[in-house]
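Sequence in, structure out.
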Amino acid sequence: MSKLPKAHKFIDLSDYGRPVARVISTALKDTKYTPVDVTIWFIISGLIAVACILNGYYWFAAFFLIFKSILDAADGELARIKETPSYTGRYLDSVADIILNAIIFLSLWYITDANIWYTILAFLGIQLQGTLYNYYYVILRNRFNGDTTSRVFEDKTPIALKGEKQKNVNVLFGIYKVLYGGFDKTIYFLDQSASKGKVLPKWLMTAISTFGLGFQLLIIAIMLVAGLKEFIIPFFIGYSVMIFIFIAIRKLL
């Protein structure tokens, strides 16, 4: 089951792991494993990648970063296949992503002796990039009856869905708001009218999908194995300029 109806799908460059994710989720369909279990697996994969980065095993780091991206897609796929959507899984996924991103960039700072403030700036940059991509993508999904577990405006604690506990939703949503609230407000401030504007053309959504976490991790993986580790942090700082360019294009359209 896709996040979007067929007529509105676009080439998502950050979603390269989806075919393998579907194989994994299909294999798990009739097992006891849940989407949350898969989320825990991608957390473990991300931590293994960090350990590999710190110890100089960059090919292994690249593998586990990409595997993390695949599992990150597989948990949602499994939820859709099993027809067990949950806010618990949605917020756990997001909380795990941002914490892992912070750890990954701290590991890059450690192995390159980059300026800590540049590292923080790069981290803030990738989070704003991802927030813009998710903002436009969720608007698209909500408009065309796609997957609606994610909301355009995450301002109120959602009501727990069947099979999950409201307490878990409350706790994870609270953590989500603390970690993502500033990024969400910043992107909304920069483009408040996006949800009321025209549908973004597929080519623009494809371009913005380079802000997706999967593509970001792919770039890190490639740069690590190419011996360009010192350029990872500067790259993401520079690429953040595209946030303003994409927003400007969206408004012009």
